[in-house]
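Thread: assembly with ligand

MN 10:42: here's the input set. Chains plus the small molecule as SMILES. Want everything predicted jointly, not piecewise.
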Amino acid sequence: MSSTFQNFQQAKSQPSSYQGIALVCPVSVGYAKQSEKGAAYFIGRSLGEMIQQAGIHKDDVDGLAISSFSLGPDSVISLCQHFDISPRYLEQLPFGGASGVIAMRRAARAVQMGDADIVACIGGDTNQAGSFADLIADFSTFTRDASYPYGAGGPNAAFALITQHYMEQYGATREDFGRIAIAQRYNANHYPTALLGHKTLSMDDYLNARPIAGPVHMFDCVMPCAGGEGFLMMSVERAKFLGLPYVTILAADELHHAHRDDPIQYRAGWTLYANELYQQTNIGPNDIDMLQTYDDYPVISMMQMEDLGFCAKGEAKHFVRETALTFDGHNLGYSSGNNCLPHNTSGGQLSVGQAGSAAGFLGLVESIRQLLGQAEKNQVQDARHAMVSGYGMINYDRGLCSSAAILASTTSDTVGGQ
Amino acid sequence: MADSKQMPPAKRTNLGAQLKPFAEQGELRLQQCLSCQQFVYPPREVCGHCLSGELSWEACPAEGQVLARVDLHNSFEPFYAEQLPWVLLSVKLDAGPVVYAHSSSHAGLEDSGLEVEALEIESKANSGDRVTLSLQLDEAEAPVFVAQPLK
Ligand SMILES: [Zn+2]
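BT 11:07: finished. Tokens for the full assembly:
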């Protein structure tokens, strides 16, 4: 990269601290395979549940950060009249699977800078008959010209190509992907909101599932659904004043369309800031008590395990063979050794369902719940640090967005824990 | 049956539709930047290398390498759903861009009337294979890329 600013770029600035920011009142609302209700229902009910938990009035919420695929023709400003609120900070984040962490980062700055005191961060979408087919048929100009006409409608085909290439390059097998899906199903079996949580999943079920595209089979794919996910953001002082238990942000970053010269995707932007996240927090991957990846196909979770430093590039196959990924460390007979890293502790999208943009908040909301000790049957014991990552927006042949954050429970005594 | 025959999706952007006359002629063309000479794809308004707005449809070297090949077993589009499994190829052109392409083995493309002999080749390209890309009309008279293994 030649640029007059090359030297200046080498000293790229880093995000300043998220000190003083509190994440409170995680909610997961209204999950259903299909719904006649509109997106505003899932966003509005998420807001309703959050303010009830917080013991505040809707007018106390003066900021709204929203992600939704199905809200159109409305937008975040339309919601102000719908919900009869008068916020002074509005943000709409069309970033799919990365939108939760991105909303969190934007809202944190707004609260730190005094642009808002309480921001509701919400992802919410409906799933009406045919709405998923409509979304993928016209997802972007690039998909309309260059992927949809080839039968490659929707993310399945693009991810099948990515998965096929990854398997050929690194020797990962379908069984390895199965280990991820099966552990997540076990987690979902302990999380009542999960739409597939009432069903178990065995390796035989996984391997014998209906083929969808190339190596991608039924249980590698998420089930589109309706639902809402959200949390409130405010200052630590305000959370204490309101008597609300809270989680803090130790570090967070995002990078989009990174590694753009890779002909086919096998990594994403995380590789370029994961080390900085750890440096800023003085902790390493071994100190992370749970990992919430964006799991819109197990191969993408593997990329996140690698790119976020839990194992080397291409080694996720070994990592999942040697690490129990369940919330309680049960290896289910699919992993050897004593390693344990609770992963997608609510079941992830693969077992909860993909509620559009809400899926981009799923791991974040789950992490807040876990670090507050408010998870129920799927509570990770003694959880102090969570890594949450986001990924999304398949504009043509690859996911463009990446985001990640390290969150801490407030019993944590690490640097930046307050 | 013929009356109710399903068609592949014909919808394109205004830019994507500009490939149609070249597909009719069987000419492989992509947008080339008049400023930096790079070929770009998918079709776009400005050059992804130098942001020049001067892009022109020019003849493009047809050879490339298959990045990955998958058989689709599921499609939201009835045309494909009726003909599963359907082969999808991701091809890295020597000229730069990555292009999704049909495999030349698909009989459905014979109706285009172009290179029928080539279309009857049984073998389907796999990852790593060298291919040559062509631009054709599909059954919906819409422009599509087709990859054929090099001998
Ligand atoms: Zn150019």
